[in-house]
Amino acid sequence: MTKTAVVTGGVGGIGSAICEELARKGFTVVAGYHPAEEDNALKRVKEWQDAGLAISVLPFDVTNFAECAAAAQKIEADYGPVGALVNCAGITRDKTLKKMGEDDWHAVIDVDLNSLFNVTKHYIEGMTERGYGRIVNISSVNGKKGQFGQTNYSAAKAGVHGFTMALAQETARKGVTVNSVSPGYVETSMTGAIPADISTQIIAGIPMGRMAQPDEIAYVVGFLCDERAGYVTGANISVNGGMFTSF
Fold this sequence. Notes:
Structural class: alpha/beta
Radius of gyration: 17 Å
CATH topology: Rossmann fold
Helix content: 40-55%
Number of strands: 7
Order of helices and strands: EHEHEHEHEHHEHHHE
Strand content: 15-25%
CATH superfamily: NAD(P)-binding Rossmann-like Domain
Largest sheet: 7 strands, parallel
Strand order of the largest sheet: 3-2-1-4-5-6-7
Shape: globular
Distance between the termini: 32 Å
CATH architecture: 3-Layer(aba) Sandwich
């Protein structure tokens, strides 16, 4: 197996925790980030260097196919073949459909769903030719159950698992697994921006009575990226504190 991993959205709350988990599992990790997040990326690099973690950063826009291609070429030239890919980049633009603009719809679909094609396309051939790969796509509990004010986000995150199941079938005989992880609400800067009264209502609806910590999501991603998880593919693992349960 190759021990280079790429994580899109790698300097965000969940993404950075995933990078750290993979680095501790022995991967050389490249955290992709949007160029507008430069300040946060530099902050993360300092934290990772201080912690002795082998994590580098690279700016590219996951909604731009050509930028994703160039990033993949640079990563494999600098760090070697990629053995694990985690598609974690995501945004929200919450509004009821009645109030949602065309830009709100397309922005979320582009970042949260179209990015899977834009990024994964450039690694899948190498993985299948080498006979090894781990791909993990970050979906959401709201992609499974829907959520008021999130038609764009719920549609995109449901699409993430559709993509996952189809690609898993294409690569199952090639040594490449493709799975998705559906977090519930996680304590990050994104959920920290939720008004206190709404946050209280959300937590009241979670049987565990709290939001997840980012490293609880990262642990599951790390398991799916492990060499020993080779018989798990096309699966969706929920990490939502019991907020939504299903077969």
